[in-house]
């Protein structure tokens, strides 16, 4: 059903990219409604948004806000929420771990980049280790973060790992399972095509030019 999904967001990876990775890998078509700083600063769109923020997501006439709720909605639509209740709970747990990491990353990028980057990178192994541990506990780390199938959390985790590989290119050197995981996911045919697309390559990572 082409045209069913619309992502309304700034022209950055930001809190839209995990959704884009999911949609691309699942072979879904979607429309990008790009909101520039100029449009946003007019204020009308902000006023119309439930929490005054983007991303906004439309699934037909169903309008959604909050990036993690958008991921979960798509997970329910496309069978990306685990194979049973226990896996779904584990996925919630891991997604909260990714969210904690994203909040720290966003704080660094938008509030403390120059003064905080060295300390942030020093603390990074402690942030990444839980995900290496999770992989090790799931079939020796040869597959996905939870269970035997890809889930919405894999796309969110992949995005946060992509961001950190730009911030600190060697950050996975001592995490072989995570390094292999990124390579494996990056090579899934539909993800690979998306990652190599002009739209992805030309899209800035963050809204302030820092990365
Ligand atoms: C910013 O924080 O892109 N939304 C952001 N900012 C604008 O007026 N809990 C929810 C969620 O998970 C958090 C939403 C999130 O969905 S994301 C938002 O709406 C506001 O609050 C980071 C991002 N930043 C790009 C940006 C926005 C404002 C300054 C830089 C676009 C570029 C320049 C102006 C507008 Fe810009």
UniProtKB/TrEMBL annotation:
Q: Where in the cell is it found?
A: Cytoplasm; Mitochondrion; Nucleus
The EC designation for this entry is: 2.5.1.18
Among Gene3D superfamilies, the record links this protein to: 1.20.1050.10, Glutaredoxin
Please report the stretch or stretches of sequence annotated as the GST C-terminal domain: 84-205
An individual GO BP term = glutathione metabolic process
Q: Say which enzyme class the record assigns.
A: transferase
Query: Any idea what this protein is called?
Result: Glutathione S-transferase
